[in-house]
Amino acid sequence: MEYTRPIAELADFFQRFPGIGPKSAQRLAFHLLKMPLSDVEKFAAKMVEAKTTVKCCSKCFNMSASDPCEICSDDNRDKKIICVVAETKDLIAVEKTREYKGQYHVLQGVISPIDGIGATDIRIKELLTRIAQEDIKEVILALNPSVEGEATTLYLAKLLKPFEIKVSRIALGIPVGSDLEYADEITLARALEGRREL
Q1: For 79-137, what is each residue's pLDDT tens digit?
Q2: Residues 186, 187, 188, 191: what is their CA dihedral angle, to the nearest 10 degrees?
Q3: Does residue 41 lie within any of the structural domains?
Q4: Would 27 be classed as within a structural domain?
Q5: Pairing assessment for the beta strands 55-56 and 63-64 based on DSSP bridges
Q6: What is the extent of the structural domain holding 8?
Q7: What is the pLDDT of residues 11-54, one digit of tens each?
Q8: Rounded to an integer, what distance in angstroms lies between the CA atom of residue 105 and that of residue 124?
Q9: First vs last Cα of the chain: how many Å apart?
Q10: Domain count along the chain
Q11: Is 22 inside any structural domain?
Q12: Of residues 14, 48, 45, 39, the one with CA closest to residue 29
């Protein structure tokens, strides 16, 4: 049975979100229809507000309603360290640890020739300009351990070498609570590489 057009179109919009398949899209559409109209109106207003007010920080390219963003504006942060991440969601993940107190640089993607994304399509040039103009002592590369993330990490490491600053990458390895026997070889090799003295 086909759904009535408004429900089908609503489900189609939900299905455009990453990770949302047809069944999830239908559930979201029906959930929205059950919500009070006032809540649906608030939801729609919040979507429009986020879309119209959130922009990229002109310094670090974090998504923010202010420019510079809240992190770049914070005088308590260490201005000599930059943590490089691919997306704002990665910045949020690092911030949730409450361990890092420096600045960020959001590349807004990674090098991915299959997807037609080259080094000039992400914010690498802006990173190099920041390092040349600011008193940066360390750059931490915190990119996903995917093929594209690895390629971008290696490319950045090569570009950063002439600056004669410390370039490090986050350690990758075994998640807490997992068993070594279930770890794949690459993860285990990275865990060994990232070992530190006790």
Answers
A1: 999 999 999 999 999 998 888 999 999 999 999 989 999 999 999 999 999 999 999 99
A2: 120
A3: no
A4: yes
A5: antiparallel
A6: 1-35
A7: 999 999 999 999 999 999 999 999 999 999 999 999 999 999 99
A8: 9
A9: 63
A10: 2
A11: yes
A12: 14
